User: Fold this.
Amino acid sequence: MPMIRECVVTTVGPNGQPHLAPLGLIEEGAFWVIAPFRPSTTLTNLEAAPFATASFIDDVRIIAGCVCGKGDWPLESVPDWSAPRLSAALSHAELEVARNEADPRRPRFFCRVRKIVCHKPFLGFNRAQAAVVEAAILATRLGMLPREKIDTELAYLRIAVDKTAGAAEREAWELVTAKIEAYLQTQPK
Ligand SMILES: Cc1cc2nc3c(=O)[nH]c(=O)nc-3n(C[C@H](O)[C@H](O)[C@H](O)COP(=O)(O)O)c2cc1C
Assistant:
């Protein structure tokens, strides 16, 4: 399996409006591949405007927010590049689509990395941040997963949050788990 880097990708819509989505960038040789499931705004935008900016972050409230419907996070323009980055980015990568592979379910956009720029220090791994990222992925796949798997995974992930979270991680965890719990309430036990 290839290496995947979880980040927040900015694409640009038809009226120049930026769109943020948490996505995994798949390493394929010299390329980073963006693989959005259909339907998605990221996909529509990349088909029309073949470039993106990946923001690498440690504030997982942004990932939690994006999967819970809050997508208007502060942005900074990138010199000589049309897709802005997150203000919170520790670093960003400017990605140009070199080619794409059509697919009825999940097309793949092979991107060349034009530039990587650092903005803030990376201060080490944190297990609660990783747990929030996992829970956010769960939150985007609820309809595809059996209830038992959701319950088991959340119980395991909660251990890392209880042991290692700071205030931002706790806030992000509460947001994502509230969404998951609201969904579970609507499902038969
Ligand atoms: C950490 C993380 C990684 C994700 N990676 C992908 C991905 O590689 N492809 C995808 O289609 N959705 C992925 N998702 C789900 C998308 O963020 C979500 O479906 C989003 O709404 C994309 O659709 P949009 O472009 O219409 O906003 C990921 C979610 C999270 C939290």
